[in-house]
Design a protein that fits this description.
Blueprint: E1 3-6, E2 10-16, E3 31-37, H1 39-49, E4 54-61, H2 64-73, E5 79-86, E6 92-98, E7 104-109, H3 118-127, E8 133-136, H4 142-154, E9 158-161, H5 171-176, E10 179-180, H6 184-191, H7 198-210, E11 215-219, E12 225-229, E13 233-236, H8 249-262, H9 267-281, H10 294-302
Parallel strand pairs: 1-4, 1-8, 2-6, 4-5, 8-9, 9-10, 10-11
Antiparallel strand pairs: 2-3, 6-7, 11-12, 12-13
The structure holds adenosine-5'-diphosphate.
Amino acid sequence: MGVVVLGSINMDLTTYVPRLPAPGETLFGSSFITVPGGKGFNQAVAAGRLGAPTQFIGRIGDDTFGKGVLALVANEPVDISGILVDPDSGTGLAVISVDEAAENAIIVISGANMAHDGREVTRTRQALQPASVLLLQMESPLEISLAAAKAARDRSATVIFDPAPAQALPPEAYQLAHVMTPNELETEVLVGFRPTGQAEAAKAAEILLERGVDTAVIKLGAQGVYYQSSSDSGFVPPFRVNAIDTVAAGDAFNGGLAVALAEGRPLAEAIRWGAAAGALATTKPGASSAMPTRAELEALLAI
Ligand code: ADP
């Protein structure tokens, strides 16, 4: 039982500005917040808030931002004892500007997230139990994530691979992923065309299955989500919500999907959980701060 997330953790330094600055320009911003982020940690917060025992495995630097991250993440229902403090790297940072039209510009400094090595694999293996779900993304070294995926398969755990940010993958990645969850853009990078509707999503899913994935989940943003395995397929239309900020909808989706699978729910239901969690995340600003609670998810699923 439970969810293990191996991946990135950042301090997000977010400035709110009237408009994004032009090259060479100095602007006065209206406010500034620091919030923990990183796809890995966002997904861990989603899984934790949705009620699964959740462990996050990752790395920060021995610096002020690292101490700040640890102080802030202590408030989340996530076991963070698997975060290693690396004296040789800086804490991952995302320097974000958000303008009044909700347009953003982001610079990521990976730092300690890209210094993962065999120690992350060992800590992931220790965290995994037979019914666990392991969640992986692409903001930390791929070879370490794939070694962790092998360890998960050895322990009969389920591997969910979110191929984000978009990047081409080696054949092994498809063979090790039980479930792969690309959005439209990531699907395009993987299969060579962007799915604009259900029919194209089905074609893309077919290609991912041929490459070795057991279940392909094509996230289509505000259009919903298509899924296909060898025995089941379907489309989940979007839940109707008042979307104000779509940042981290995909992270919430993965958290919801992982919790449902860790609870032994059937695939079709697990996809609905993911879609509901993704929809709820669009109703709040920010990344980890926008992750829904179990009560919010159950209320939306009951409508
Ligand atoms: P990503 O953040 O990886 O780009 P998506 O934008 O595809 O991911 O969102 C993930 C899932 O969240 C979608 O498949 C959908 O189920 C849900 N979702 C996203 N945007 C909306 C929206 N505006 N309304 C309702 N559901 C949404």
